[in-house]
Amino acid sequence: MKIWKSIRENYQNELILFGIFVGLFIVMGIISPDKFLSAGNLQTMCYQMPEFGLMALAMMAAVLTGGMNLSICTGATVASIVAGCFMATTFANENPAIGVFVGIIITVAVAAVTGLLNGVLIAYVGVTAMLVTLGTKLLFEGLGLVVTKGGSLAGFPPLFLKVGSGALLGIPYTILIYIVAIVITYFLFERSVWGTQVYMVGCNETATRFSGIATRRTVLLVYIYSGIMYGLSGVLISSRYCSAKTDYGSSYLMQAVTAVVLGGTSISGGSGTVAGTVIAVAIIQVVSNGLNLVGVNRYMINMITGIILIAVLIVRYVSGALSDKKKIRERAARARA
Amino acid sequence: MQKVWKNLTKSKEISILAIIVVLAVCITIVNPNFLTVSNFFDIMRSNSIYGIMALGMLPVLISGGIDLSVSSTITLCAVVMGKFLQANPGSNIVVAILLCMVVGALAGLVNGLLVTKFHIPPIVATLGTQTIVMAAVLFYTNGMWISGMPDWFLSFGDIQFGAIPSAGKVVGMPIQILFLILVGIATWLILKYTLMGRGIYAVGGNVQSATRVGYNVSRVTTFVYIYSGTLAGLAAVTDILIVKQIDPNTFSGCELDVIAIAVLGGASVMGGIGTVFGTFLGIILMAVIKNGLVLVRVSSYWQKVVMGIIILVTISVDVINRRIEKARLVHVDVEE
Predict the structure, then answer these.
(1) Does the interface predicted TM-score (ipTM) exceed 0.85?
(2) Interface test with chain B among A131, A141, A258, A298, by most B beta carbons within 10 Å
(3) Which of the two residues, A199 and B322, has the higher pLDDT score?
């Protein structure tokens, strides 16, 4: 009982989001029980959500420090293109197991390096995160184009497809990767010293530095972490197509921002939970997948996602303002008494 | 004269100007066709669209906000005007331009209200309106092109002013560049000589101080978004006057280009800093890079790499310069 109370107090926003998620899930189930609730569709959603979810976690890491990472999608594609160059070689195709394993390592490593570049420019040079990642977004996209010449890179070992479509004991690898990433992110951000520092930097960087914390290193690590997350997403995306191209997954950028904000992370940094982001990702996935099945136009789905974002923020503001007013009135009444 | 020179060398704009000159010299050495009046008019004409939007973005950035919805606003205005002209071919240019600007202003008003009344952070509010409006427009048009503009409208886009001999041809200044210049003058006047303009700088510098001095912060904030929307509307007209038809997909993602121009021109996304002159240099720099890469025969695949590097270098150098200056100021204080 006590645990429930503490959850209700600390995770109020997440509970509301979870309620919305369950509600939407039921509504979609009622609208099209045969399609939406079919095993095939639920499986499809399980395969699709991790890509998007990892992008959202990558974005969230940056937003927690009060920054922004516009280079998540192009960073992921450039990493998978570099790895693709290796995986398309005859060596990789002759030794598929080694080839795929090394390919995945390369993708994540290159993504971490792109994160390092962002982090150095943001933390050590001191440029605003949004501008740095705007520049690196173009840079990575350009580098990818230089390698692929605008086409797509193919000829990977067929084993690579297994990463995105295979399953262990009936659970897709993608979901396993996603769950591991969520758990690690949770412990790193909400249960570790570094995570606490990240939230502090997001609240007030100057105060954090004056309290003796190496804020620059903290921020640098955040962007490297962000890089690793979008690198993993890049692995899943290129595995789904079994090829690499610069515009794969480019639609995830704005969606990731939407998910992070919907999940209750403050865009100015300093507050937000992993659980909120994960539930928000699930909400967006259910809405877009469900409406798609019902046959709603895909532009209409984008529009509804946007409306949900704005509506949630308006509701959050109005309810916040109302509860503030109530508190003031109570305090005034107490003062009078 | 000496004072002017000193001010100029101290200002941020001089470094952008230097980059432009160096680039122009390099490109001209490789391809002498670059430094001709007709080429200059050509590249400025095609970049006037982004220029006008960047001039609208400038006050938003100065006030400490950001407007990601310019891409959807310009698309919305272009489609509304296209449909309007198809329905009323007997209309005239003034009505068409006014219609675009009013639609843009309304889109900006929505952003302004979301930011001021519901306290949604600008980046999120405009991201939301961008998603909604863009999706609505694409849903309505189904991504199809709109063409068949009336003749009087198309011929308005071919108007040129003056006659300057250049590279064996006689060229005049296209009307699109006139639009850009007029918008530049208007923005400069607003920022420099009106209470609203000073309010924009004040709000961007420090919201609390601005409130105490007596500026109506929400009115200033709403104004900058309306202004940005209005100019996006004008940019829509400019665009149709150049390409002569409407493709609802061209402008998705252009907001990042627009922000890049304003930032290259020295505006700070943290607010409080930015000038019209700098933004103009940003437009020219962007145009020179894009055009120069083509003239120097750099493969188009490398263009984005070069653009990315130039953006990163420019903003990094700017930040480092500012830090050195700050360090020097501190030093002087200590000595005294």
Answers:
(1) no
(2) A131
(3) A199
* Nearest-angstrom CA–CA distance, B81 and B102: 11
Q: Classify residue A176 by burial, with Cβ atoms within 10 Å: 0-12, 13-18, 19+.
A: middle
Nearest by Cα to A58 from A40, A41, A76: A76
Check if B120 contacts A (Cβ < 8 Å).
yes
Region A304-332 average pLDDT:
86
pLDDT above 60: residue B335:
no
Check CB contact of B131 with chain A, cutoff 8 Å: yes
Cα radius of gyration (chain B): 21
Residue of A nearest to B258 (CA): A134
What does the block give as tokens for A270?
């300093």
Containing B165, the helix (H) or strand (E) segment is: strand B160-166
CB–CB contact A303 B306 (8 Å) = no
Structural domains present in chain B? 11-297 (1.10.3470)
Q: Is A37 on the interface with B (CB under 8 A)?
A: no
What tens digit of pLDDT does each residue of A123-147 get?
888 888 888 888 888 888 888 888 8
Q: 3-class DSSP state for residue A167? A: strand
How many other C-beta atoms are found inside a 10 Å radius of the C-beta of residue B47? 23
How many helices (H) and strands (E) are present in chain A, helices listed first? Answer: 16, 2
Sequence-distant (≥ 6) Cβ neighbours of residue A12 within 8 angstroms:
none
For the cut 50, the answer to whether the pLDDT of residue B55 exceeds it is: yes
